[in-house]
Design goal:
The complex is a heterotrimer of chains A (206), B (225) and C (245). Helix content of chain A is 33%, strand content 26%. Chain A is of the alpha/beta class and 206 residues long. Chain A has a five-stranded parallel beta sheet with strand order 6-7-8-3-9, sandwiched between helices. A four-stranded antiparallel beta sheet of chain A has the order 2-1-4-5. The mean pLDDT of chain B is 94. The longest helix of chain B is centred in the C-terminal third of the chain and has 30 residues, at 195-224. Chain B is elongated. Chain B has one domain. Chain C has helices at residues 7-39, 53-80, 83-115, 123-144, 148-180, 198-230, 235-242. Chain C is flat. Helices cover 78% and strands 0% of the residues of chain C. Chain C has a single domain (16-242), classed as Four Helix Bundle (Hemerythrin (Met), subunit A) (Up-down Bundle). The chains are: A alpha/beta (206), B mainly alpha (225), C mainly alpha (245). Chains in contact: A-B, A-C, B-C. Chains A and B meet through helix 3 and helix 4 of A and helix 1 and helix 5 of B.
């Protein structure tokens, strides 16, 4: 369960958001909407602890994430704008090293994840030879391998064609059904079922 | 949660694998080292006695500059492609993961300088008998410079100033290592004991191993904010 | 006390203190300069040129004192996230750098009559030079970071790393100097030993005190300026300015 109290973030002079308050329970998806520059990415980064808020706090299972530290980070997977993929490594190697930081790496799981995102044929290609959409899929494959409860996704379906976006949307939906928690930023409509979706529009205060 | 030692080993291995795939890039600091050292005879003249006198200092300054030049490689690409923030999100102490990165960086950019140094020393007419102390001083000194340099690199991630800014921050902090390292090498050429200097370099290494990764991790979190 | 770490309370407090501090600075400076430049005896070795000491030595003391204060303020900013600490650190840097530059220039001018050269690479001056580079690095780092919060935190880390290294640098340069310099160049180092005459010590301490009050005065002035810039959108500031505080 993720809860946020009186959260405020600024960029220089501009207040991005303030007095933000919400709670997210297992089995819920929070959709952050808003124009570019409205602070969606900053909020996401504040929720995973990369950015320090100017005011307020974030709590996981009732405890401040700043106190929890590593324990909290073990429960989340963050997929940001950049794919965090090294071009010189193959998708298989990228996932091996990336997921190995959080969870004992198993080649079988990695192979299966690549299969599920449709990249099995490209397993042994250097990632710089992949298209943008393919690289995004490698980044998202991490979610399938790590299976952490909390997913924080920043524009996850960018660069994906409609079919793949729907496939990944189904992956997200399944995670929510399995009592996972997901926070997603996206300009566009989510290819996810509407039932457990909560909207949080972020508009900069006047 | 994966074990800490596995995570550290993976970070170390990844750095070495990536470096191998970007082979052309690693060689640059080594070549720079050789070029810088050759500049001195070109500037001052090849008179053997002069070269022998300035030799230890020149090799040390060359190694210092080559080390400094390579500092950008530690974090810059990872910062750009997003893998650095993933490292910061790993459920392990960032200071230890950073230590793994820095250790790999030393293997790629520090250790080779230590191995090339004897060749350059011979070019500068330095006595063969003094080479073991030169190598020992660099073996102790290059990791210290890379550890201190990593703090500077972490503070300046993504900034306009780039490499020159890191140099300005880090060069004043290198002076103790330079003083004792060059002095050790010089004592050896004069036939006196370099024990005191080498012990001090060892102490510097112990100090930087303890504090630098922690300072770098703090600096990284500040830069990633 | 902690409340004064907020700009809102600090601004008027500083405003009230500044005239007093400035007055004390002026009195101490005038008194110290009179004693040092006119009243105190000439040195038995150096004659009248020793009088540069009264400007040079306190300057060197301040260059160190300000750096340590800057690092302490930075540390406070990192731990307690107080804005005034951030501003104190940032405001101190140019003042400290100026003291360092003054020490370098006066030391160099002093060196000419004493050793026949403007720069003799003695231990103190070399350490002072490295300190100057440390200040420049700090200010360069601050200037390259646009976000004020990142700038404050990054420079705080740098200052703390610097403050830990300064004793090591002093020790190393000292050792380097004894290794390479002949023993005759010890005139400046004489000040380290407790054989200085009281008639010379008093003006020296007075000037030290004067410089310290100068630092405090300028620090408060500069912090107020920083508050004006960083809090320019705050309502309390508009009211305070209207009331002439």
């Amino acid at each position: 369960m993720l809860s946020v109290h009186n959260l405020a973030c600024r960029r220089g002079d501009r207040v991005l958001f303030e007095h933000l308050e919400f709670t997210l329970e297992p089995g819920q998806l929070l959709h952050l909407t808003g124009r570019n520059g409205s602070g969606k990415t900053t909020l996401l980064r504040t929720l995973c602890g990369l950015t320090l808020p100017h005011e307020g706090s974030v709590h996981w299972q009732g405890e401040d994430i700043r106190e929890l530290g590593d324990e909290f980070r073990a429960e989340l997977t963050y997929v940001g704008h950049p794919n965090a993929i090294h071009g010189e490594l193959t998708p298989e190697e990228n996932l091996f090293y990336a997921t190995g930081l959080a969870r004992r790496p198993e080649r079988a799981r990695i192979a299966e994840a690549l299969e599920r995102v449709g990249l099995a044929p490209q397993r042994y290609l250097a990632s710089k030879l992949l298209s943008q959409g393919q690289r995004r899929r490698v980044a998202l494959a991490r979610l399938l391998i790590l299976e952490s409860p909390l997913w924080l996704l920043d524009e996850p379906f960018n660069a994906l064609d409609r079919e793949t976006a729907e496939q990944m949307g189904a992956v997200v939906a399944r995670h929510v059904e399995a009592q996972g928690l997901v926070i997603v930023t996206s300009h566009t409509a989510l290819p996810v079922g509407r039932e457990s979706v909560r909207e949080l529009p972020l508009e900069a205060p006047e | 949660m994966s074990r800490l030692d596995i995570a550290i080993w993976l970070v170390f291995r990844r750095e070495l694998t990536l470096a191998w795939r970007r082979r052309a890039d690693i060689v640059v600091p080594w070549v720079f080292f050789a070029i810088v050292v050759s500049l001195f005879p070109l500037a001052i003249g090849p008179e053997p006695q002069t070269l022998r006198t300035i030799g230890p200092g020149v090799v040390w300054v060359g190694a210092l500059l080559a080390t400094m030049l390579s500092l950008g490689h530690i974090f810059d690409t990872d910062y750009a492609d997003g893998s650095l923030e993933q490292l910061a999100l790993a459920p392990h102490p960032l200071s230890l993961l950073v230590l793994a990165k820095v250790a790999a960086h030393w293997v790629l950019a520090g250790l080779p300088l230590v191995l090339i140094a004897p060749l350059l020393a011979v070019q500068l007419q330095m006595d063969i008998a003094s080479l073991d102390v030169l190598v020992a001083s660099l073996l102790l000194g290059t990791p210290v410079m890379i550890l201190i340099g990593s703090v500077g690199a972490a503070l300046t991630l993504g900034l306009r100033g780039g490499g020159v800014l890191v140099s300005l921050l880090v060069l004043p902090l290198y002076t103790p290592v330079l003083i004792f390292g060059a002095s050790a090498a010089m004592s050896a050429t004069q036939g006196t004991s370099a024990e005191m200097q080498l012990s001090l370099l060892g102490a510097f290494l112990a100090l930087s191993l303890t504090f630098a990764p922690w300072a770098s991790a703090a600096a990284l979190r500040i830069s990633l904010d | 006390m902690r409340e004064y770490a907020s700009p809102k309370l600090f601004y008027p407090l500083a405003g009230r203190l500044i005239p007093w501090l400035a007055a004390i600075t002026a009195i101490l400076m005038a008194w110290g300069l009179y004693l040092g430049l006119f009243d105190s005896p000439p040195d038995y070795q150096q004659g009248e040129s020793v009088r540069i000491m009264y400007v040079h030595v306190p300057s060197a003391w301040m260059s160190m004192f300000v750096y340590v204060s800057m690092a302490a303020a930075g540390g406070a900013a990192l731990v307690w996230k107080t804005k005034v600490s951030e501003m104190a650190a940032s405001a101190s840097a140019p003042i400290g750098a100026s003291f360092t530059l003054l020490a370098l220039v006066t030391g160099s001018l002093w060196g000419k009559p004493m050793w026949g050269t403007y720069w003799a690479w003695d231990a103190r001056m070399t350490s002072e030079l490295i300190l100057f580079f440390l200040y420049l690095g700090y200010m360069a780092l601050e200037a390259s970071i646009d976000d004020p919060r990142r700038a404050a935190r990054a420079t705080a880390v740098l200052a703390l790393v610097g403050v830990v290294n300064i004793p090591i640098i002093h020790f190393s340069v000292d050792w380097w100097n004894t290794l390479h310099q002949p023993a005759s160049i010890g005139a400046l180092n004489r000040l380290g030993k407790p054989t200085i005459a009281p008639s010379m010590l008093h003006p020296l301490l007075l000037m030290g005190l004067a410089y310290t009050f100068f630092y405090f005065t300028m620090l408060l002035v500069r912090i107020r300026n920083q508050i004006l810039v960083r809090e320019r959108n705050a309502t309390w500031l508009a009211e305070a300015l209207k009331e002439g505080r």
